[in-house]
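Example record for the data management plan.
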Amino acid sequence: MKINEIARLLSATVEGNPELEIRRVAKIEDAGEGDLTFLANPKYARFLALTGASAVIVGKSVTVEDRPADATPLTLLRVDDPYVGFVRVLALYNPPQPPLPAGIHPSAIIAPTATIGAEARIGPYAVIGERTKVGDRSVICPCAVIGNDVSIGADSILYANVTVREGCIIGNRCILQPGAVIGSDGFGFAPKPDGSFEKIPQMGIVVIEDDVEIGANTTVDRATLGETRIKKGVKLDNLIQVAHNVVIGENTVMAAQSGISGSTKIGKNVMVAGQVGFTGHIEIADGVKVGAQSGVHRALPKEGATYFGTPAYPQREAMRIYGSFPQLPDLLSKVRELQKRIEHLEESQPHHQP
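Corresponding structural encoding:
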């Protein structure tokens, strides 16, 4: 594909050769002649001088400095967001392939009351329960288990070994990566006088709205009553635990190994880094960002704020707190020295009897 065709796709401005033929996309440090790459972070601008790529997708204000005169001429595609532009071109050069051939594999076990939509694909040994509905063009991969009374929308993909338990609802264009579990029992146990625990029935469901992606081996527990809800556009990484009655707002993203305790409500457009833990029954405002390995034990009510640490503090305050840690050993030594001086002074003072 030629640069001018890619430019039309991205609404990009071309600086260089519009007739240049691009054969593939590559990382900026690995690219060679005929390759297209991108530069999204200005701190990596030095690679523009060294890259062997023929063309680079860049921002509107990026400049190329110190490129050798004998280097391959570099064509620039200027766009508003280089990363988004590169993702679009990457998809163009690497179109997704269906994970299954068309049709229903003969080893699939489908209940007689289940409804399978037009052009849906069902893989080997998949199980689909009674009264369950699978939408048009959706894909159920090998060994997935879909319980009774489940609804799966159109154009969704459930990869191998996914489990969706009874009554849960999956929207349109959702992706559930291998091993995801939707609708497992919430962690509810009532203590008894003898020290043992009575299991609390988990009677609710999970609702996953449209355009959600759930990572591999992530679990979303069903509600005790009502529903656990993952709203439109949410992206959950691998190995995340979402407890009963949690609500995650639209277009929130969460990295691996994070966990959300029961009945917590997370706003829309929230960004959560890896290994963050949320206590239960709190609310997180829209647009909040939470740094890696933070522990959130109370509500975060300020929209758009950034938090970090355990317990989580506003970022500036957290940086001051954590920045003081290396000074603590010296401060402790000084305190001990001052304490000894005070004790010495007290011992050297004469004692007056009343």
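Summary line stored alongside the record: The two ends are 101 Å apart (CA to CA).
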